[in-house]
């Protein structure tokens, strides 16, 4: 993962923890309303993909164990990982594109209700993503994958060469010669792996996204309601399809790219289709980026504009993340796909303890305040959720009291200690296992391995009935 040059080492600093009485009277542990749904507390476990579903996207005992463990800590809201809305293989990530996924999702809802004794509201994040391939072996790329065109013949000054002749000529070329011969997209496919973009409107499946996605998201949201969830979070963040529509880099010329109004058009159409499918009694909100943190990408001004537009459309919450884009991702090894959390924007999404003078704690708070202020000044009251390096009670309280957000989200801190919420509420904050922001968990995610935390995954391995990783070396949930 990319890290800031300054390489300053930060430690989570929790100066003090509140007494049970103070916690009970705090803003953090006061109720908050997301449209039709009221959560008991302003605490939130954001979506985290744990790589525990089957390859076909079904709920497994490991998935139930993962969410049940978070639910025992009783956060105000728990959001289930990014779950696919279309019928495309996604490895062991959950899917919700067909009724065959309903029984497993119902089990998941039941598990969370029981484990939290009904105290935690349960949302599910629904996602669409475009095609991405692994970085190819160059020999195979030139022999098979690259589509040979007359442009290559011209560039190589071999007008009459056969396809095989062109392939043989390209394979030994050095980087400079390749840069002169291949298009930027062909070079990218060679160096990073082929990746579809929302601007590839010459591809019918991409041109058609404005007609295919609203019904796909709507059907997924309907299924979430059917399964018993309290709401859905539309995934409009990071490197995925809907965020790419919102992005300032979206130059589609069909009315769905260019100006902000056009970039927001499909996200708003998706929202309306979802709302029509689930009605007013189900919470619907979006997770989007307070800042894309890439050259030429959306800034906080864009995000404030989108936040107001989403609130105006009737969204019940606005959840803010940051960065996490393919545009600046590091080059993957041969045989691996690019991962959107490896470059500077990825750092902004999941900042690590080795940081710059701003540090990894609360990097998104300033932007959240700008966005929330715009939304409030425009007369809308949709709650704003902020995440990024939040781990302390005073820190969380000051974010809420400063008007930067209405709810605080703790991702890695909840993984390090899912009992953070119940411990702090009971005045037992001193026993919280504090996240060290090492990103060991994120590295597992990057390698498509079952996600665990380094602070507990080797503890008490002989405990009876615990689930273990495929290699048997790590426990899968916190002791
Ligand atoms: C293992 C892992 C998986 C994640 N999966 C998702 C996801 O499915 N959807 C999403 O919006 N964010 C995902 N994130 C990002 C987190 O929700 C959160 O925004 C980020 O970790 C920053 O918050 P934190 O500093 O509290 O960890 C993931 C993070 C981690 C560490
Ligand atoms: S592995 Fe554990 S301590 Fe390290 S960043 Fe992840 S949750 Fe925090």
In CATH, the homologous superfamily of the largest domain goes by the name Aldolase class I
Radius of gyration: 23 Å
Indicate the percent of residues in helices. 25-40%
Measured by DSSP, the beta-strand proportion falls in: 5-15%
- General form: globular
Low-confidence blocks of residues? none
Biggest sheet architecture = 8 strands, parallel, barrel
What is the straight-line distance between the termini? 28 Å
Give an account of the 3D structure.
With 479 residues, the chain is of the alpha/beta class. The chain folds into two domains: 8-131 and 204-322 and 348-446, Aldolase class I (TIM Barrel), CATH 3.20.20; 138-191, no CATH class. The protein has helices spanning 20-24, 61-72, 102-115, 138-145, 150-155, 163-170, 175-181, 184-191, 204-207, 209-227, 241-246, 260-263, 265-278, 300-313, 344-349, 365-377, 393-401, 412-416, 420-425, 440-446, and strands at 8-9, 32-34, 37-39, 43-45, 77-84, 121-127, 231-236, 283-289, 317-321, 354-355, 384-386, 407-409. The chain has an eight-stranded parallel beta barrel with strand order 4-5-6-7-8-9-11-12, surrounded by seven helices. A two-stranded antiparallel sheet has the order 1-10. A two-stranded antiparallel sheet has the order 2-3. α3 crosses α10 (209-227) and α10 packs parallel to α13 (265-278).
């Amino acid at each position: 993962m990319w890290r800031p040059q300054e390489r300053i080492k930060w430690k989570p600093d929790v100066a003090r923890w509140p007494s049970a009485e103070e916690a009970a009277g705090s803003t953090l542990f006061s109720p908050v309303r997301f449209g039709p749904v009221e959560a008991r507390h302003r605490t939130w476990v954001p979506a985290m993909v744990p790589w525990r579903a089957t390859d076909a996207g079904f709920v497994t005992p490991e998935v139930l164990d993962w969410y049940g463990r978070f639910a025992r800590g009783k956060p105000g809201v728990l959001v289930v990982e990014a779950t696919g809305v279309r019928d495309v293989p996604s490895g062991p990530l959950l899917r919700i594109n067909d009724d065959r996924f309903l029984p497993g999702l119902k089990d998941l809802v039941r598990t969370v209700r029981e484990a939290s004794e009904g105290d935690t509201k349960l949302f599910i994040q629904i996602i669409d993503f475009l095609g991405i391939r692994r970085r190819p072996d160059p020999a195979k790329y030139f022999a098979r994958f690259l589509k040979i065109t007359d442009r290559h013949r011209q560039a190589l000054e071999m007008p009459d060469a056969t396809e095989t002749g062109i392939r043989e000529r390209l394979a030994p070329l050095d980087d400079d010669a390749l840069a002169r011969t291949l298009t930027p997209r062909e070079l990218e496919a060679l160096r990073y792996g082929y990746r579809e973009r929302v601007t590839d409107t010459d591809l019918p499946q991409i041109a058609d996204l404005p007609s295919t996605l609203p019904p796909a998201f709507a059907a997924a949201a309907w299924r979430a309601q059917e399964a018993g969830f309290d709401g859905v979070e539309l995934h409009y963040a990071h490197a995925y399809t809907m965020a790419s529509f919102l992005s300032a880099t979206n130059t589609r010329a069909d009315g769905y790219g260019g100006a902000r109004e056009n970039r927001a058009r499909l996200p708003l159409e998706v929202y309306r289709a979802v709302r029509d499918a689930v009605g007013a009694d189900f919470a619907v909100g979006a997770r989007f980026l307070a800042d894309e943190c890439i050259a030429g990408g959306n800034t906080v001004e864009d995000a404030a504009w989108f936040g107001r537009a989403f609130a105006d459309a009737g969204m019940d919450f606005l959840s803010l993340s940051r960065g996490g884009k393919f545009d600046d991702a590091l080059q993957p090894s041969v045989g691996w796909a690019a991962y959107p959390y490896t470059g500077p924007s990825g750092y902004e999404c999941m900042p690590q303890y080795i940081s710059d003078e701003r540090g990894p704690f609360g990097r998104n708070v300033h932007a959240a305040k700008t966005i929330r202020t715009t939304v409030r000044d425009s007369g809308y009251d949709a709650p704003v959720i902020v995440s990024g390096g939040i781990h302390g009670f005073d820190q969380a309280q000051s974010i809420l009291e400063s008007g930067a957000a209405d709810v605080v989200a703790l991702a890695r801190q909840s993984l390090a200690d899912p009992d953070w919420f119940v411990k702090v509420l009971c005045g037992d904050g001193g026993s919280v296992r504090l996240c060290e922001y090492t990103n060991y968990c994120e590295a597992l995610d990057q390698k498509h391995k079952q996600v665990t935390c380094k602070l507990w995954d080797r503890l008490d391995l002989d405990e009876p009935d615990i689930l273990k990783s495929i290699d048997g070396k790590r426990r899968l949930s916190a002791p």
